[in-house]
Amino acid sequence: MNDAALARLLRGKFSFLRATPEDLRAAIPEWEEVLPIPQRIFLRQEEATPIQGFPVLINDALLEIRDSLAAYVEAEEEFEVAEARGRGMGRAKANAAWQRYASLLERVSENAASASFGRLYPSIFWLYHSVAVARLFKESPRRIRRADLQVGKARGDQLKYLVFNRYLDRALSVSYDVARRVSSVTEEPERDHFPSLLARMRDNVLILTEDHVSPDLAELSSFFRGNLRIDGREFRARLGNLVAWHDHRLEDPGFRKSMAGLLGMDGHEDSRHFLSRSGYVDFLARQADYDEDRFLPPSWIKVWDNLVDRLREFELLAALRRLVLPIQDDGAQLRCSAAAAGLALSGRKEIELSESTRPMDFMTPWVVDPLVQRFGLIYDITEFSAIVSALRRSGKGTQDDSIRQIFRFQRRVNQMTKDHRLQLEKYLGDGALYSGRFPTRLAAAAVHLQRFYRRSRAEGFQFDRGLRIALNYGKYRLLPIEAAGGEQRYEFFGHGIVELTRLVTGKTSQEIDDVKTSLLSRGYDPTEVDRFFKPVAQETVQIADRIEESRPFYAYVNESGVLINEGIVATQRFIDHLAHSPAAASLYRAAEGRRRYVALSFDEGSGQITVGIRKLGLARLKGLGSLAVYELIDGGSWTTQELEPLPGTTLLAEVEKDFELATGPKAHRRRT
């Protein structure tokens, strides 16, 4: 994410920060290394525009850390008030409260650091937790005055920062200990596990002690007295005089234009934005009509310049804190506040989120469970390596032309999958893996991919031996990968990919060829190798179904339980989800030769798609055992007369019935 993209995400009114790339870079020059990047959060109707933010799951365990923090801070305040009265009460209560809070903070910090993998989970936690910290310390002087009015008036603001600094030192110590412990396990630098955002908060006291600052600095009375040790009321009065004087100067168009050009502004900003530019008030102080008796004196100009730098950083981080989205999970639906999401919905206080939302649960070791379930699609070009080897022997010109062809082919495939709102997960040499959330989108993409391959082959595409496609609904694990510029991407791995790759490479003959090649490369006699594998080769020929393989695209399970896929195949879980989609409401019977299909039509944005489905049987797939597989074919050429309506039934029931009719009792028992 670049500066401009981040600036567009920030919500709220800014008094000292301009939401421009230049101001963001000036506030935190190294923000790519410090600031976590908001993610897209889809609403229940996923077609709606997603919101941007940090989804944090709110549960009783997470609320406990907020409550234990309040108990600790109040215990420290009680101790300091007693000390100020001269009635020492000991630190036992405060220490016990700290131990309770520290144990929870340590648990959360270790979870966030261990599961982060470059995703800045520790910083996201502190974005969330700093809201509670700031609100608590903001109210500290009032609580002290309620406990003892005299002590509160005399020393309430100083005690606030005394307690705050003690808390911050202890919290930093916990974070450093966790970073050290996690780095010893991961063998990575400690700085990679320490929340870099917490370091920024440590250096800017406003972030952890205030939740809002007005243009007139009315909220900072305690900050002036307790932290800067100056008269905040006089400072604000002098600043107000300066603003009024400067407003009058800006009424001169020439002065406004000159100052805007000097400061790199567009000239439409109000007076406070001018005065917030570093060094500008010092420049004004050299003007003849600048009155030091009414405006800021030189010593306070330095205070102001330092303060506005803090305020710009404060407003930037406060805007990011507003992007933290508290998520509630009632077991059936994820919800969040419409106001927190920045959505103005009449009559609706809550919005429902997509079930694909994966909120961060800082009380669990993974924070975000890496196990997801997605619909997956893999395509694979048949005999790609063999064709490449043959083209390499044909000369450089032919080889270069083939590379350009496959490059254009994959670019067009990517565009088609984007049109169907699929996500490219990874390239797989001569194919690719895509994922999506709706089975109809993947089925439509598979049909369009097959059509495009047919056209490409007719136009002279040199990789013309076939195209294999597999569809599933499987379990995947997400491996976070840090990309250039701090952006995050994820790699899929796990059972779901294994299942798809087995479905597109179901043939065993390729494995035999690999073994034969390996033996020949090691010096074995070619005649002996051929003689040894001759029975297996004959068996392969005998069980090949020449009728099935006469089709342009085909798939079947042979008598040995081997899947032969040169078309589109899908798993039972994929078909089951397809059957329960709205598209499966109207079913039809269709036939091609001896094959019977259950057909369904649906509109997937790019037009009406008709697919035919039939069960192939149980395939023996390496490492997976037996798996029920189904063939999908493109039914776009079927006419209305060729489609027989199937009312009052279900897709799976009809597909199973056709399978039993096609295989017969004995064959069915043998296959299953």
Characterize the structure shown.
- A hairpin with a 3-residue loop joins strand 7 and strand 8.
- The longest helix is centred in the N-terminal third of the chain and has 38 residues.
- 50% of the residues lie in helices and 18% in strands.
- With 672 residues, it is an alpha+beta fold.
- The protein has three domains: 301 residues, no CATH class; 135 residues, 2-Layer Sandwich (Alpha-Beta Plaits), CATH 3.30.70; 125 residues, no CATH class.
- The chain is elongated, with a radius of gyration of 34 Å.
- Helix 4 packs antiparallel against helix 5.
- Strands 6, 7, 8, 9, 10, 13, 14, 15, 16, 17 and 18 form an eleven-stranded mixed beta sheet that branches. Strands 1-2-3-4-5 form a five-stranded mixed beta sheet.
- It is built from 23 helices and 18 strands.
- The two termini are 52 Å apart.
Compact summary:
The protein is built from 23 helices and 18 strands. With 672 residues, the chain is of the alpha+beta class. Helix 1 (3-9) crosses helix 2 (21-27) and helix 4 (60-85) packs across helix 7.
Please write out the topology.
Blueprint: H1 3-9, H2 21-27, H3 31-34, E1 39-41, E2 51-57, H4 60-85, H5 92-116, H6 121-138, H7 140-147, H8 149-186, H9 196-203, H10 221-228, H11 232-250, H12 253-263, H13 271-275, H14 280-284, H15 298-321, E3 324-329, E4 334-337, E5 350-352, E6 371-381, H16 384-392, H17 396-419, E7 423-427, E8 431-436, H18 439-458, E9 467-482, E10 488-493, H19 495-504, H20 509-521, H21 526-543, E11 554-557, E12 563-566, E13 568-571, H22 572-579, E14 587-592, E15 595-603, E16 608-621, E17 625-634, E18 644-645, H23 651-671
Parallel strand pairs: 2-3, 9-13
Antiparallel strand pairs: 1-2, 3-4, 4-5, 6-8, 6-9, 7-8, 9-10, 11-12, 13-17, 14-15, 14-18, 15-16, 16-17
